[in-house]
Amino acid sequence: MKIPLKYTIRNFRSRPLTTGITIGGIALVVFVFVAVLMLSSGIRKTLVATGSPDNVMVTRKAANGEISSIIMNDTYNVILSLPQVATDSGGKPVATGDVVVIINLPKIGTDGGISNVTVRGVSPAAFQLRPNVKVVEGRMFSLGAREVIVGSSIAKRFEGAHVGGTVRFGGDTWMIVGKFEAGGTGFDSEMWGDTAQLQDAFARQGGYSTVTFRMTSPDQLDAIKKNFETDNRLQQFEAKTEQQFFEEMSEFMSIFIGALGVFITVFFSVGAIIGAMITMYSTVANRTVEIGTLRALGFRRRSVLAAFLAESVLISVVGAAIGIFLASWLQFLTVSTLNFGSFAELEFSFALTPDVVFFAFLFAILMGFTGGFLPSVRAARLNIVNALRAS
Amino acid sequence: MASIIQVQSVSKSYWRDSFEIPVLNNISLDVPEGEFLGLMGPSGSGKTTLLNLIAGIDRPTKGKILVGNTDIATLSESQLAKWRSHNVGFIFQFYNLMPVLTAFENVELPLLLTSLSKKERRDHVDMALKVVGLSDRMHHYPKQLSGGQEQRVAIARAIASDPLILVADEPTGDLDKHSAEEILTLLERLNKEFKKTIVMVTHDPRAAEKAHTVRQLDKGELQ
Prior knowledge:
Chain A is an alpha+beta fold and 391 residues long. Chain A has helices spanning 5-14, 16-50, 73-80, 125-129, 152-157, 195-201, 221-230, 242-286, 288-297, 301-328, 354-381, 384-389, and strands at residues 55-60, 71-72, 95-106, 114-122, 134-138, 147-151, 166-169, 172-181, 190-194, 207-208, 210-214, 237-241, 334-339, 344-349.
């Protein structure tokens, strides 16, 4: 039979200072752990939301990302002729050939520092394919003009990137005529302009970086992939859902930040584990007579072990809850960093997902278990007579 | 009357480093059912050690201890824990109540080791607290009780599971004269009214007066 849980819970509350300090240490470690995981999942969430599962994105097989991919005009035409490409009411394919380039712009508040910005040349169908992209200030760029619209994140972070301003790239000056929002996706960190103008400015008249089209239905993906495997003209290219493409773009960055964070937190956690261990050793020392009494009454060693381990884990769980609560406020922050997938600035928010909460509690329970194990074993192994003598 | 406790040629030694320290030397003792036995003797005479052996919280170096026909020295540790929970009620000098549990919860503690339902446990606890006259204090924590009341809660805990024997180690050692008298009267009542077999270690001659039989221990030997 177990020692009642209320014994554990009330003992936990009976030493507010030492328990509070230990909880504080664990909360701090969990805060760091959660913050890093939120950062990692924020990148993933932002990029996954960028792509739609209904759209197919075609890139060159050997390309690492959009900027290193080239699809020539004849291939573009072959892709658009596939039967799985959806058409609009006028019979035109719902597809865009995007030209993606990276430019440098001075960043606000960095004392002349510059950073990479993605500029995407799109055709009008791009707005049909990506309906979350909406012009919220100014107007849409005109076809055939050196005009761009800027993502909301670019507008607030780069000098001169406001409606009515100008930017210089591709050997020309481009007028910013509008600002768009893309629902917190990666497109918010881009500038968009007319494909033909971008092709002209960067001497890419022969083709596009990527081709994105709407499928006639989402279950056509396998048939599309088969076309790319069997058609000699398409074998150098790869088709995947737009969502999968952007998810893969997030992988390296997400894993890198996650791994780095976990590595740092593991070091921090050693301190928290030692703190929990000291607290639990002192608990065992203070309650030696109680342990002896419980054992004399007939409670077994394993019951004592479980009760003290539960107390240690409880300390950690409370610490984790506090750490998660504190870290949850980070959701209101947005940060930007260079995305290794696109080599351009990407703005994203810290994302608190159920996975992050689960792993934070798991991590805390592991800390509590590790810190409480030896003291609990000591409690369970106390000789009854010696323990009772401590009174 | 049949013996409920039979201590047969029991010796007990402790080891400190490589030195053997003999505490009990070839002790034999029979305690009839319903007996109120007092064990007296100077400090270090081995009376608490003998009590611990009878209660099954320590093991003899040599000899046999039968309690209610069970040779407790042969039981494994977990068997012994189970045996104690069913057969022994403990009364300690410093009461040894759990400070974070109420009087009710402290008395209920040994009952958690039985198969009684929650309602049956409640009935047992109510009855035990009624016997010791603390029904009105069942929701009080130990720190809200006087020393005498704490010891009465401890006695309620000892009798709640209706054990075969009660072992009391200096039950009045931490109490004033008045409270000590109350506790001794209560133990006497448990022995007479409820036919409980009690083995009590004491230094207090007034406590010993309540016992039916008093045995003296000196240097590990029964006089």
